[in-house]
Amino acid sequence: MHLRSRQARKQGSTRILIADDDALTRRLLEKTLEQAGYEVVVVENGRKALESLSSTDGPRLALLDWLMPGRNGVEVCREIRRRSEHPYIYIILLTAKTSKVDVVTGLEAGADDYITKPCDAEELKARLRCGERILKLEDKLTYDALHDPLTQLPNRSFFLERLMLCVSWGMLHPDYKFAVLSVDMDRFKVVNDSLGISAGDWLLVQIAERLLGSIRRDDAILRTAEVGGMAGRSEEVGILARVGGDKFTILLDNIQNASEGIRVAERIQQAIQVPFDIDGQAVFITASVGIAFSGTGYSAAEDMLGDANTAMARAKTLGKARYEMCDPSMHAAASGRFRLETDLRRATERQEFRVQYQAIVSLLDSHITGFEALVRWQRPDYGLVMPGGFITAAEETGMILWIGNWILQEACRQLRAWNLQFRGAPPFTMAVNISAKQFAQADLVSQISDVLRETGLAPENLRLELTESVTMRDEERTTRILRELRKLDVRLCIDDFGTGYSSLSYLRRFALDILKIDRSFVSDMLINSESMEIVKTILSLASNLGMQVIAEGVETAEQASQLRSLGCEFAQGYFFSRPLDSAAVASTLLACERDSYTLPRKPVWQLTAPVR
After folding, report:
1. Which residues lie below 8 Å from residue 603, measured CB to CB, with a gap of 6+?
2. What is the model's pLDDT at position 505?
3. Contact yes or no for 272/185 (Cβ under 8 A)
4. Residues 310, 326: contact at Cβ < 8 Å?
5. Is the pLDDT of residue 213 over 90?
6. How far is CA 155 from CA 151, 247, 289, in A?
7. Domain architecture of the chain: domains with CATH
8. What are phi and psi of 321, to 5 degrees?
9. What gap in Å lies between CA 275 and CA 293, rounded to an integer?
10. Ramachandran region of residue 595, left (φ > 0), alpha (ψ -120 to 50) or beta?
11. Whole-prediction pTM
């Protein structure tokens, strides 16, 4: 919203400019309009008219004489319309010209209306009332376009417009400092999901009130948007804006240093932490805040807001209910993340993903029983990238759905080929991880059924690995989906068991087939008695429930021996084999004892073929 249009609404009477070189006409019009309740500004030429209309608090209604010395009314009209940064001014031309050509010329110059001299008082007032209605509509449309309808706070467009003023001023005046705070409510979705959208909207309004209360009075544009200064001027001006959902931004203008932003962030968190009362129910919520300070130098409003958002996201990652300052390393990290997401999308088109397979072996006789499919990314200029380098980005961008389906198809196709080439009894199995987003898909079961049908793999040879956190998100749905998957005759496995929400009822309710002991327990069990007890407990629990157990991350002979003595039947890890591409797996199987595919008693680096 332009400052002038806001201030115009504060006036008790509408201001109007009369520009005419004839003194008698000016006096008559001035007397008529003052009697009608207008605040009248009178000038005698086009230059002064342009100065008056271009000033910060200039009139929004104007009567311009067509023929004036210097710049005439038509020229002033053209100049005003050229200056798009100003709020709209309703212009009526005063003219003795009545020909159609002259009228068209005036209207094309940007005039809204015209009236012939000598003016009829009642006709003039009627035309001005029409102009006022149009200005009110213009102001409302502008206000609505720049404000959030729920909280009546400025919106993102308004905020960026004002932030750009600060950025521009800061580029010209190095001593001028300002800051942007990105404020996001933690776990706000829980309120909408549990209490309903209406309660969530009410809460947002209350949050806005508290944010306004926690900002210094001279930092905030109140929701009525009544302000009295410009960025870089002596008056301190700031903005609290709602930019979408439960996210707010704050512009602190004309501050001394970054610590002022930190003080505001602390006041915000204190204010938000006080419980809200919704129909007698106490609702607790916290806020994560990111701060970007102009001292690092900015040339674009979007960049500064983006850095504040990056800092806010980091605050959430580090535990929520806290603030974080932006620094150059954050900017570099954000740029790197953008490139990662861009390259990730292109990777599907360029077929850059690879599947490697890690053998699962019997601890009793070193027999290879199956494999786990592990995705890798052959990223140009970076080499082979492990899942930790891109899976999180894939999940956040939704690319994990494509990747997960591709891995499933590739792994099933490959296992089918190996079971035909290397016939053993029983045939090899294949474990494939199912991500949270995959598991949430409504057609997950039909997708898996289609892959099994297309690849020709026997369903009982497929192991679907889920994490405990995935299955616990919606127990009713999880129970239904797992039951449908069991009907397909695939086997179900809980990965990283022991690190999540393990319980006996949990395992019984979901009727799972396999538990995988997390590598963290395996690696510590020989030096940490607590890890050893956890391993023993998992093995005992699985035995009582008739489930298989696979130990992950076995790297030494001592670990393998200890697991065997505890009754663990299966394991995987570098002690047996590193993850290999399909050609290396085939070479390993060819080197094994035929039919039983028992691994020879050799050091791991002699056993496995190198990763290609």
Report:
1. none
2. 56
3. yes
4. yes
5. no
6. 10, 11, 18
7. 3-146 (3.40.50.2300), 156-326 (3.30.70.270), 339-607 (3.20.20.450)
8. 50, 45
9. 30
10. left
11. 0.58
